[in-house]
């Protein structure tokens, strides 16, 4: 046997392989199919953790995902280390390394336990009442100490070595939970043409049936029936079974998030396997069969290792074949604990006594327990326990008080009935209603297309659970449009355990000063909850936030109803009036990595590259991110830094010819008989008189009058415009155009097409640009007379069709060669080769910025920031004064937009030409003014100009155009820089070069 | 991730759509004739309805068309989608003038 | 007011904590008040507190339809900073930050203001330019904000993925050391307790259903689910529900309410020393005193009052978090929730008089209202008490939208070229 507490599992003949693992450095042996919890229990280990606040020793309370105590860190390496996993959920494998958390130096001897001695001074919310003096002590002294005490496990120290993936799925019927109700629902729903997904958080499907030795269905033992049903479902092509898959969240319109754990249970996962998959399922209909969670009883010192839920003990015995204790006291408010006691007894444990809170007890299970010789004490409570690292005894008395009897034990089972798991129902915005009988909330009216079945609906008798599951499955398939082909019947033989339940604290009034835990992990006692209500925290949300009950990693699965019960009794208000805290996703903690999925590194966002990108890369270009685009930033040669490279690129372009990849510019083709009218309405400029074959610089405003985008526009024909936009603005511009076209002016005959990806754009700039291009071009006369600045011609270049723009963003004679993107690289290389004799130089965005700044050309997003009008930017000339209307026109006459003292774009030259201003630096009139210093503007662009052999800058300055020649101050941390206001055009103001 | 029924393409996930804000706000025919207050009302004032709300969506990553949806902002349930130029159904018009 | 201190806690501990009183009363509404504040969130409670403590208006009620602090006050990621670009915003947020610095002592309630530093990351050249513009403007406005190189970012916040293979690498950051976090619930409770002690009636479970006006137009009171209450002045501080309340007085506002989500991880031992924000990749993260990673997500694209949002928004947020700190991929989300944020066209607040005499509004704080709580309450109290805006909130009018005098921080920071 592997461990002294091992018993034969159920009635199943078994052969389970031995599995070796370590916990806190010690080696243990378990059996295949064990959880870490069942394997440790098999070895007699119950002490697995320490509580959050008092660091009290803690053991297993549950056998499932509601576990509040048994949190462990798992992983042999930091890159695969996961904190806060539930030992009740971790499946063991050979080589598993697990450790306890939140203890120092060891689990048995934890220094944090000092808090326990001061617990009288650490009631709920104590930290709001102290640690206030002196002012800085909170951050410097108290908070660091509190932080060190708080927290549970340790975050992994190294990047995660695993991968995660995401799947979108559609199905007709999604069934959450594969217990009796879910299995019946799946059998019925899939007996149709509906596609069905059945998911369950556990490794093995079957839910409570796997722990049931007494019931039978269709003549089979419950667990066998479950396996047979699963075999049948597996054969159906329309069914997908997903174990280890938690439906963690409900999102609007029947969209359910599932988390599938793929490799965590494997010793040697295949390298191509993701660790987890996030399934985003759109289901036509959903069946919620999420089951119910057993409720602890709130009694004095109910938190010691060895005190667990009765149903959990039953699961350990029947499903895993381990007995959690040999001397057992049972404390219950319902019949189901009797069933657990009988199963433990059958496994060889001694049941010392069943202590029943109920005044009188009777019925099948009580009779059976008595018949087996188990002592039953009704109208009684466990009023205290002893034992430090493991429970040793229970003190038992009448429910109203009186003398206590001490009974030795190594296990106390408790059951306060069951709480339906209404989490997903509530997340779907279904209305909950309170059932006085069950002392729990159950699903009421639905909002989305779902139905609850079985225990999560408040049904606990196996027969009705299966019946409701079957009915729900049929209903879901039919509502999804797939009436089932038939109906089957289920012969269920099971004794009901009724639906008795208890909420709140069982303590007598004399015990008010004792501590009875409501929330185990967060160390919230009934006393804390009562204190909160006395201090005026009466909404259950306030109680939760003040005491932290329900805020632990189980999110109140065990504690919420008992907290409600305590509050209800304390303030004498019925439970439904006290309220209920909101259910939020995720149902159980869900890995960040699964939400992020493949989105990491280069896959975080798409990378857009031009067709010329690889050429630039091969030339050693450095790139910058502009939106999702990669743009060549500068082309350093050996030994050059950015400054040197840019100076060289600028010089080459001004003196001979430079070549620049402008393909990222947005492009929109605007076509139709009303195209010019549409342009008139969208842009500030007038377009009617622009002749085909001409270009114009266009400015586009938002309706609020501020500059949104700009770009050069070519009129290709009377009914056709080739519009360019900024790199980052392309999508915004097109969608704004579509908005106006479709919703305001549907009468206009205009079509808009994004052509950004269709054209490669090669800018050739410099005095020799024409000479380089001429030999390559067919059918276009490039001479200054035939093709003046701001014109466009169609023809061929290198045999490829082109729209050739004569345009300049540098102030030099320049062309922009548009060719179909597939030819971009070839044409670029051909031009580059043709330019060799002229020393053609590739340049990047930084040089482009410098050259345009020398000419005073703005960049939207740099000179403008969403608060700049055309007049502010010196673009008043581009606003068609005669036009009746265009987008943004009306806003331009609002009072704040016509003020004289608006910030206006000017040039700035520093007194010391060697000093380059910092972009973003603020401009003031009086640098000696005490703080706050009134600021009149800021530097928008600033560069070293190799051309002018000095620094240059553009700035937005209050009333700037009336300050020409004025000396302004730019206060920097290390001194004040002086600069003179000048015109924004600093180079070739007459434009002789670009008209050459 | 809402499920939105494009009147032209059928039901598609929200990821394919761009929201266009409150519907049935027509751009004034002659903005220059408006007072600053009237213009600001067009530009900025919104019903921000708690309840049945008529809004515009564009099937941006699909057919590209704008359309309207009547959605309850207290449940996110979409009662109906309809084409540009159509009015909300009579029983849905009570929510706003 | 019962004094809170280490000593009082010690004494109470010896007597089983039997002596603690209610932190605020639960009074029945009186027939009338000088001022009614609609909305018992942090801003509303702060307004009431400052009305009573600084402006001598003590006959005040705060009406809350649910439980105090139950809206965005209790749902936000508690980031506090004041390093805004424009003078107007810097003025109001710095006013708030100065109040934060002494708030625990002023209220005798530990709101756990923790100036651990707010680091805003730059991921492209435009970000760098924009943040440097902020740093320079802040310096001249007397607000601390400094530029850190990528290496300095890493030193200040070691878990950050600096120099790793990020799609948008960290190019530096702007750090405000006085920025940090506070305990959100404690802010609501602390103001409530202090206001209550000055005589303010805090009335929970009291929903305003109508605003009553005299024939001459001025407000005279409110109708509520607990009856009609007279009021000489009414201040509406209802965040996401502001449009609904203001409609009752026939006032339309330039507001839309969007879902905003946040989430926390399971608690882990201290590892993340400060607040990190990245507007470019949409990541906002800090670690709470309890050990949870507190993470802010983005807004959904549609208006909604459901206090929940889409899963894809959460996915996107965690993409970014896992990029910033790849080791956090194995942490697990414990809880994800939504709030309703009221957003104006320029994403700056409105703290102002309204066209209706006696009616004042404080709204439009969008995704960033928590940090402003004390400042917002203080200037709103001043505005109500004096029937004219304070110098600090004077720019935050409704009329700025008519006039075009918008305060558009987001546009100034977020335009890409």
Automatic annotation (TrEMBL), chain B:
Gene Ontology biological-process entries: tetrahydrofolate metabolic process
InterPro entries (UniProt xref): SoxD (IPR006279), SoxD_sf (IPR038561)
One Pfam family linked to the record: SoxD
UniProt GO MF annotations: sarcosine oxidase activity
NCBIfam families: soxD
Protein name: Sarcosine oxidase subunit delta
Organism annotation: Tardiphaga robiniae
Highest classification ranks of the organism: Bacteria, Pseudomonadati, Pseudomonadota, Alphaproteobacteria, Hyphomicrobiales
